Amino acid sequence: MSRLFEELDYQSTPIGAVSLRRRRELTLDVDVYEIKLDDEFLMSSLYTASEVALAEHALAALGAGRETALDVVVGGLGLGYTAQAVLGHAGLGELLVVELLAPVIDWHRRGLVPIGRALAEDPRCRLVEADFFACAASAAGFDPARHGRRFDAILLDIDHSPEHWLDPRSEAFYGTHGLRALGRRLRPGGVFGLWSNTPPDDVFAARLAAVFASAWVEPVRFRDALHDRDWVQAVYLARTDAKGT
Q: Whole-angstrom Cα distance, residue 77 to residue 6?
């Protein structure tokens, strides 16, 4: 039997104190892992449907029959469920996971998270300690080993929504200029995917459509067994044209 509550790690970071906790949810008879930033909950292992859906929808949007293996970026590591879903794709070449908080990367390397060391030990996956938003805006891009590298898909799961940020400095990314800069990091026909904790927002969907060749939003519905209710979250998707955005 697991302990009713255990704080597995607690460390200071440039944007606040981050902690990894494990508690026993007696109602469901499961261990629940949670990440907090100061007093704010970032992720729970109880609710992973939309994080997995982000990877599934984005990679499905790339279509089948590509002659080369896919190169993918995931912004935000968390408990690793989006990255794990990407690694499950048969056509994957390489995955870069860009994470600002060094302790989160350390948790995966030490196997403290529910999926253990699966990401850290997969040869197709590189965990990169960097600021996703700064990388998106820079000419250097996301890969410290290859300046200006472009990718088939870039998936973002960091902020709660396009209007609710963990750090105010990421606000500019969600504007027209920031999205255009992100588009330059995609290959022709590449896909950008964004997770949001809130239901679909027509305003942000329209902003994506104004920047990219095409854009749409997929609602993700799932059952919350703990609170006996249904939730609706969103995955935003956008694609570059044959010449890029």
A: 21
Quick count: other Cβ atoms within 10 Å of Cβ 243?
A: 8
Q: Which two tokens stand for residue 211?
A: 């920047």
Query: Shortest CA distance to 186 belongs to which of 82, 87, 70, 60?
Result: 70
Tokens of 1: 């039997």
Angle between helices 202-211 and 176-183 (to 10 degrees): 50
pTM for the whole thing?
Answer: 0.94
Give the model's pLDDT for residue 1: 53
| Phi and psi angles of residue 60, each rounded to the nearest 5 degrees, phi first | -65, -35
Which parts of the chain are beta strand (E)? 5-13, 16-25, 30-37, 40-44, 70-75, 92-99, 125-129, 151-156, 186-196, 214-224, 229-239
**For the chain, which domains are there?**
47-239 (3.40.50.150)
How far is the C-alpha of 108 from the C-alpha of 124, rounded, in Å?
A: 15
- Rounded (10°) CA dihedral 107, 14, 35, 7: 70
Helix (H) or strand (E) holding 172: none
Residue 35's φ and ψ, nearest 5 degrees, are -115, 130
Please write the tens of the pLDDT for every residue from 221-231.
988 777 788 88
Nearest to 16 by CA among 42, 51, 43, 46: 42
Reference 190, options 65, 71, 97, 96; nearest CA is 71
